[in-house]
Amino acid sequence: MIYNEINGAPMSQEKIDAYLKRIDMPFPENLDLAYLSRLQWSHMCHIPFENLDIMAGLPLSLNREDLYCKVIERSRGGVCSELNTLYNWLLESLGFEVVSYSSRIIAKTLPIQTQSHRVMGVQLDGKTYLTDVGFNFEHHRIPLLLEENLIQPDGECEYKLVRDEFWGWVMWQNRPGEGWRRKLGFTEEPHIDLDFVPATFYASSHPDSRINKCTKVSLYIDNQFYAIRSGSFLREHGGVEEIIEPALSKEREGEILKDIFGLSAGD
């Protein structure tokens, strides 16, 4: 695909091997849905979403080599555009037919937002599957078939995709006990790495950004979603959010970052 060529050269085999080792995945025997599903889930269980550089006032880079150094060599995480830009590079390098879309997150408290979130569409057997490893809330744990009104369970929640005149596609999530709500909307216009630079700068620097106000870290551990968010340490399981420790001190936050997420604010 021409936009993959615009993004740049694929990873070397050495880089691919180190990336797969970081997420505890073997090299694929087949580029099929089974492998893509394992790849997405293993990525979500080994590489955290985290905004520690933003909170430290450090600039973010979507340069592929910079991202590789940060996430793979230094064992860090990143925000959505960082994680999905690096993941997109891995998918391309493994040989998947992949295209990136720009989406709008639809939050309960802020339903209309700028396009800021990268999601990938992978072509397999004439069908498109959405894959994403960069969300800071319970999100689809499996690639989702891009098919209208098909309810797709991932073992935790249910998802469906619906066409919409404004959004293009709308992804809905059904959380147990809460019912269906919209998660994000996107169109199928292909995007390249450079298209996500403005969104990354907005996330890190704009006063209206929802990612530069407090520490946001999350990771899937033992099939449960754990996060530091809004000053609290929490987990989500069965679609229900449970506050484990509210109102964290900076000292306690640092302990949880290290002990639970394997991170240090000074890394």
TrEMBL record:
Pfam family, one: Acetyltransf_2
Entry similarity comment: Belongs to the arylamine N-acetyltransferase family.
Alphabetical list of SUPFAM superfamilies matching this protein: Cysteine proteinases
UniProt-recorded name of the protein: Arylamine N-acetyltransferase
InterPro entries, per database record: Arylamine_N-AcTrfase, Arylamine_NAT_domain_sf, Papain-like_cys_pep_sf
